[in-house]
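name: query_chain
kind: protein
chains: 1
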Amino acid sequence: MKKLLTAFITIFALIGFISLFFVIFNPKYFNTSFSVDTELASKFGEFFGGYIGTLFSILSVLLLIYSIYNQNIEAKKTESRNHFFKMIDYHNENVRSLSIQHIDLDKDYKSDGRRAFVVFKIQIHELLRLVEEINKKNNYKFNQTEIIDITYIVFFFGIDSGWILFIKEKLKKYPYHEALIEELLIKIEQNAHLKLGRTNQTSLSTYFRNMYNAIKLIDDNKFLSIDEKKDLIKIYRAQLSNPELYVLFFNVVSRFGKKWKEKKYITRYEFIKNIPTGYCDGYDPKIFFPITYEEEEL
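structure:
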């Protein structure tokens, strides 16, 4: 619509100015003397007002329509931005409300706010280590994506002897999944001082759902340019601490990141570009999301 209006305005403006040029310098009206032919001037005024004036009246109407259209577009952009910033506010409020007990039972304190993600990071790290050990010991030959998916499923939903059927159902697509789960449960119970099998879905489900919907809100907006979208999502990216980016990376590589990957949100908006090199326990984010990371730019 905007391009069509711009084209019409340009065409009518060109016609108007070209017509004006030819009319003024037409031999019937143009002379180099200082005398004024009142009759000719009167006819020129009637012609100019009727022909050129009409063209410029049409141009004025088009400019008015263009102005109203632009105001409407800006209003819609402002509405989307305001909604987006409210979702960022909700994100920060959600983070501030977190209060997570440390997985080490010997450390009898809670981590609040963003420090809760440090605890999440420790739990994922320990679960990764256990899954990798089982994979290597039994020669299951799970690749990196599969190891991450298995680990994150256990991290997110939790695992214990009374919750084992649910986890088996979630991991049934993997060969040897029952033997894997049973051995993993034994290893977790051997590390009884660490609550490695606890669930985190209550804390993280809303967190990631709001994050995805905020990015989707901007990405789906047909009025914002790609540069405007990137600038807004860059603001969101700036809210994330390194431990948050760590948990986000494992979330989007796992099956939970299916829509993220289908929509290409991570690569299009370089949403995890601030992850430090070597931060993800030997898993290179660049292999999964080939973007330019912050440390590569320094």
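note: The chain has two domains: 2-74, 97-298.
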